[in-house]
Design goal:
Helix content is 38%, strand content 33%. The protein is α+β, with helices and mostly antiparallel strands. The N and C termini lie far apart (159 Å).
């Protein structure tokens, strides 16, 4: 037995080979050996990233809302400014504008008869090329001319924006329907009717007291329709006007369409600035 005992002890201790791994089953976890400390590190790595994303979204949302609010406020300010300017312009009567010198017309300085036609036994049409001078004191029309009186910071800003808008608009174009001319002493009599092409009128700010700021206008193919039944009345009117050194007539226009910019260019933002005047009645005095 003494010979067998050492053998059994040695054999029981000799087992240096590794144990064969167990076969994986459906319930075997994919990640093994993960300790609680490893999960904590992973959680700490993910949490700051989510916080940064939430902070970035919050900042972007704030910037968007502030930008939208600023745009809305700017739009409302521009709308009310444009409305205030347009309200002043539309409420001004043409007769008052001419009487106050806001719209100035001088001439005609030159007249050239290019054709005379007879459409029937009652109407004779005379075709003319004419030149004259005209100007619009737009600053006075909408009330933004600069003055020496201090009316407050907000009023100065309002006027400055208005003058900037006038300079950018630069000119207006006017399409006028047939103009009816009658003598002041008898508005029921039609002396003649006038058809004119579209007219471009430059806009001015703070013009001088003289007429040096007026712009020369060339009107081509102006048509004057003379009723032959009123020839004697027309001749009497011309004689009276020559005697007094001035022509005073009533002017009636069915409608006039006004838009910004050139008459030949229908594109751009200037053309979108438009308006319409109906049933225009005024009195014009032309001195010899």
């Amino acid at each position: 037995m003494s010979n067998d005992q050492p053998y059994n002890q040695a054999s029981s201790k000799v087992d240096k080979g590794k144990r064969r791994a167990d076969e994986p089953t459906e319930r075997t976890p994919l990640i093994t050996g993960t300790s609680s400390s490893g999960l904590g590190v992973l959680h700490e790595a993910v949490t700051p990233a989510n916080s940064r994303n939430r902070s970035l979204r919050s900042q972007l949302t704030t910037v968007f809302l502030v930008s939208l609010l600023v745009c809305l406020i700017a739009f409302l300010l521009l709308f009310f400014l444009a409305w205030s300017y347009a309200s002043r312009a539309t409420n001004l009567k043409l007769e008052d504008a001419i009487e106050d010198g806001y719209i100035v017309v001088r001439g005609p300085d030159h007249v050239n008869v290019i054709n005379v036609t007879r459409s029937n036994d009652e109407v004779v049409s005379v075709w003319l090329n004419m030149t004259g001078r005209a100007g619009v004191d737009a600053g006075a029309v909408i009330g933004v001319d600069s003055d020496e009186e201090n009316e407050g910071l907000m009023n100065d800003i309002w006027k400055s924006i208005g003058r900037w808008g006038v300079r950018k608009l630069d000119r207006i174009s006017v399409n006028i329907s047939t103009i009816r001319i009658s003598p002041v002493y008898d508005p029921e009599i039609t002396l003649f009717n006038v058809d004119v092409p579209p007219v471009e009128l430059p806009l001015s700010l703070n013009p001088p007291d003289d007429y040096s700021w007026l712009t020369t206008l060339a009107l081509n193919s102006v048509r004057i329709q003379l009723p032959t039944t009123n020839i004697d009345v027309l001749l009497d009117f011309l004689k009276e006007s020559w005697k007094h050194g001035s022509i005073v007539v009533n002017v009636e226009v069915g409608n006039a369409f006004v838009h910004g910019g050139s008459a030949t260019n229908s594109s751009g933002w200037r053309h979108k600035v438009r308006g319409k005047l109906d049933n225009i009645r005024t009195r014009i005095r032309l001195r010899r």
